[in-house]
Amino acid sequence: MDGVVVVDALVAVLAVSLLAPVVVGLLPRLPVPQVVLLLAGGILVGPQVAGWSSPGDVQVLADVGLGFVFLLAGYEVDLRLFAQDAGRRALVAWAVSVGLAVGVVGLLSAAGLVRAFLPVALGLTTTALGTLLPVLRERGLLAGRLGRYLLAAGGVGELFPVLAIALFLGTQNRFTALASLGAVAVLAVLLVVARRAVREGGRLATVVALGQHETAQITLRGTLLLLIALIAVTDEFHLDAVLGAFLAGVVLRHWAGGSSPVLESKLDAVGYGFFVPVFFVYSGMSLDLASIAGAPLRLLLFLGLLLAVRGLPALLVYRGVLTLRERVQTTLVTATALPVLVALTEIGLRNGTMLRENAAALVGAGVLTVLLFPALAVALDRRTVSR
Q1: Closest CA to 42 of 256, 297, 303, 342
Q2: Structurally, how many domains does the chain consist of?
Q3: DSSP assignment, residue 38?
Q4: Which domain holds residue 294?
Q5: Are 301 and 361 contacting, i.e. CB atoms less than 8 angstroms apart?
Q6: How many other CB atoms are found less than 10 A from the CB of residue 310?
Q7: Best CA proximity match to 46, nearest among 373, 285, 363, 312
Q8: What is the Rg, in whole angstroms, of the alpha carbon atoms belonging to the chain?
Q9: What pTM did the predictor assign?
Q10: Is there a domain that residue 278 lies in?
Q11: Which CATH number is 212's domain given?
């Protein structure tokens, strides 16, 4: 009977994941990305509205989906960007955000509005690059000079907060977090060695070359094994695995080399076609609407802080290299946050350091950034093109 319930719940979740892009396609002037429709659909089919599905029914698939969000984000980031002006400015902008976050959250903590100082401060420095990728790709914002700066800013805003969280807020202990980082480093070395072995020819090279397509799909299966293994090594899906997924994506991009576009298209198909939509529908089902309704001003406060702390430094840091319109777009893109906020609030609630109303307000503010900021950035681009 339980299996039937889970299958019925999965049908509801997959129906939402199908309808979201259909609605966006039928209503091209709809000023929201499909991620927002996935979240809204999760709320509708979830226990707080229709009750057709519950977060627990699809949690395992959602965990894999969250892993894919970070894997694909890491795969998109080219480490060579950080040796260029785009990477250096991205690091400066994030450092400014950290300083602002420490000051602002310190004031909120002194006023008694925040109990979990570090999780909230780090949450205000995050960027949802994995969430933004579909929108930025579809609208052509990743091309050219602006695209390089957006990717660098998004990569820094996703990697460095997750790294800090894994080291200082891991739900296990700091030794485990460092061990997970070491494991990813070992993985990187093994992948480089394997790549050289394949390139040198022989039977293995032939098997891999012939098995990348059609029924074998060796590289895709290997990537899925890597991602699931990262999730399996923790008792639950902790930030250690999130960090590992992001870094694994960076390593895989380097490992794939010339076949990178081929593997990327397959990862997009599996990730965006199934697992990633399940994660966002799950996030909608998990949203604590009652706590948000009970403290709406906190939601608006955190929304404003995300824009001010994470976004506004871009207006100054990118002067001289981006136009005012592009800097405003960068501000809106970098201030968009959600997946890391979800993980952060789960940690805060689990260890009892975060107030429930703050957890709900942070996630709600993250949802609003996904709803508002990318649409505004795209609208600015459209307005310029129309002129």
Answers
A1: 342
A2: 1
A3: H
A4: 56-386
A5: yes
A6: 30
A7: 285
A8: 20
A9: 0.74
A10: yes
A11: 1.20.1530.20
**φ and ψ at residue 180, rounded to 5 degrees:** -65, -40
Q: What is the pLDDT of residue 174?
A: 54
CA–centroid distance for 231 within its chain: 16
pLDDT at 367: 83
- 345 token code pair: 């609030």
Rounded-to-integer distance, Cα 65 and Cα 209, Å: 28
Q: What is the dihedral of CA 46, 354, 367, 383, to 10 degrees?
A: 180
Tell me the per-residue pLDDT of 244-270, one tens digit each, with 9 for 90 and over.
Answer: 677 777 777 766 655 556 677 777 888
Bridge partner residues of 319 (DSSP): 322
Tell me whether residue 68 is in a domain: yes
Cβ atoms of 373 and 335 within 8 Å: the answer is yes
3-state class (DSSP) for residue 211: coil
In a domain, 43, yes or no: no
Token output for 213: 């397509």
Higher pLDDT, 342 or 386: 342
Q: Name the maximum alpha-carbon separation found in the chain.
A: 67
pLDDT band at 273 (very low <50, low <70, confident <90, very high): confident
CA 43 to chain centre: 20
Q: Give whichever of 140-154, 208-222, 252-266, 312-326 has the largest mean pLDDT.
A: 312-326
What span, in angstroms and rounded, lies between the C-alpha atoms of 214 and 211? 8
What tokens were used for 68? 């894919």
What is the distance of C-alpha 145 from the center of its chain?
23
Report helix, strand or coil for 319.
strand
Cβ neighbors of 368 (< 8 A, separation 6 or more) are 299, 303
How far, in Å, are 101, 127, 319, 333 from residue 311 at the CA level? 12, 9, 14, 8
Q: When comparing pLDDT for 304 and 192, which is higher?
A: 304
pLDDT tens column, 146-205: 888 998 898 898 888 877 776 666 544 555 555 655 665 666 566 555 555 555 555 545
List, in sequence order, the alpha helices (H) in the chain.
2-26, 34-45, 59-76, 85-110, 117-123, 129-138, 144-168, 174-199, 203-210, 218-232, 239-256, 260-270, 276-286, 289-294, 296-305, 313-317, 324-334, 339-350, 356-386
Bridge partners (DSSP) of residue 322 are: 319
For residue 42, being part of any structural domain is answered with no
